[in-house]
Each structure stands twice: as structure tokens, then as C-alpha cells.
Amino acid sequence: MAKESESRTLILKGRCIVPGVKKGIALVCTRALSAAGGIDPASGEIIEARHPQRGENVRKKILIFPNGKGSSGFSLIFHALSLTGNAPRAMIITRVNSLTALAAVVGNIPTIGNPFENDKNPVDCIKTGEKLLVDASKGMVFKVEN
Fold it and tell me: What are the sequence ranges of the domains in the chain?
């Protein structure tokens, strides 16, 4: 059986936070994420009351968001997401902080963060629903088309 040809276009280059290579569909969050009280670890659903992406699910998505907010419970939620099989495949974070870096590490989620080449903002240059290949080991994000 022949493998379909796949074209890739480099759309973003940043810094590796957690290495790994994953392919998936983008979920772009336009505001900061609060994990504790903001994401249901049993389902992966964004449940934060006034979040623009409330009702979306992070499970097996390439999660793109500006930054994390909250307490040290942020990493606990991402650990729980990983244990329940509801974690994102990979993450791209505009402004990595200690909360988001620790969440990526404990969840073992391939993650790319700032600084980004040419000061690109992932939230602005990636759209929800796009198919992406994230090579976090090299800090590269590709748009994939079959």
C-alpha cells in the first residue's frame, strides 16, 4: 500500500521546552489558560466560565495558548490529563513561565515556547483546525497538507 505524499510548510520556530515529535489538529486559545478549575482532567474539556474556548477539548490536540495562569496546581492538572489519556499531543506557548514549563515536563508533553523567530506570535499565525507537525526537539512547527 503506497504512502500518501505529505507537504509541510515551516510556519514557526521557537525554543524546545520538552522534546518530542507529534502530529495533530491545532486548538488555539486566545486567552491565558487556568488549568486548575479551567480544564477538567477527567475529560480534557475547557471549563473556565468566561474563557473564549470554553467547551473545547484539549485531548490529543496541538494546544496553542498565550500563557498559563494560576497556582502550582497548574502542573497537577496536566499530570492528571496525561494519566487519564486526555492530555494534548503537544503544546506551543507564547510566553512560557514556571507554571507552563513544569506542566509540560510532568505531563511529558512535547512543548515549544518563546522566544520565537522573527517575533512571531503562535496565537496569531496558527488557526484552530489546522493540521500541524510539531518537532519540539528542533523547536519547529510545520503546517501539514495531504
Answer: 7-145
